[in-house]
Design goal:
Mean pLDDT: 98
Largest sheet: 5 strands, parallel
Low-confidence stretches: none
Helix content: 25-40%
Bound molecules: 1,3,4-trihydroxy-5-OXO-cyclohexanecarboxylic acid
Shape: globular
Distance between the termini: 12 Å
Number of strands: 5
Order of helices and strands: EHHEHEHEEH
Structural class: alpha/beta
Strand content: 15-25%
Number of helices: 5
């Protein structure tokens, strides 16, 4: 199975920012753990702070599933929502934190209704649970 793990804005700072929320492991360290979990699968990892680059990656993805943590873009990016709607590749929305136990503005996702599903609140394991969901 071919999986694309796509991270959006500020997620490149994971391990350095808000460690109480997102933990102290870097995104590279988390990705290495994901890669070893999915050792029999082909995993691609991409992170960008730029909305258009995330859209382009979604347009061009040739894979069985996209695991997308769009970061703050989740809450307002109609461009990313439209990119998801424009392709047939299934996308699972992911968040490390439980956004519903945080500020009100994080309770809204403009992406969820065009995604296959949503996994949130399990820290780095949210990515692994989302990847596993493509195998069910
Ligand atoms: C996040 C939650 C978002 O609200 C926030 O803007 C992030 C990370 C998460 O993984 O919990 O950057 O997507």
């Amino acid at each position: 199975m071919k999986l694309l793990f796509l991270n959006g804005v500020n997620l490149g700072l994971t391990g350095m920012r808000e460690k109480g929320v997102y933990g102290s492991q870097t995104l590279e360290e988390i990705n290495a753990e994901i890669r070893s979990h999915f050792k029999d699968d082909e995993c691609e990892f991409f992170q960008s702070d730029i909305e258009g680059e995330i859209c382009k990656k979604i347009h061009e993805a040739v894979c069985d599933g996209i695991i997308l943590n769009a970061g703050a873009y989740t809450h307002y990016s109609i461009a990313i929502r439209d990119a998801i709607s424009s392709v047939t590749t299934p996308v699972v929305e992911v968040h490390m934190s439980n956004v519903h136990s945080r500020e009100d503005f994080r309770h809204v996702s403009v992406l969820s209704s065009v995604c296959k599903g949503v996994i949130l609140g399990f820290g780095k394991n949210s990515y692994i649970l989302a990847g596993e969901s493509f195998k069910l």
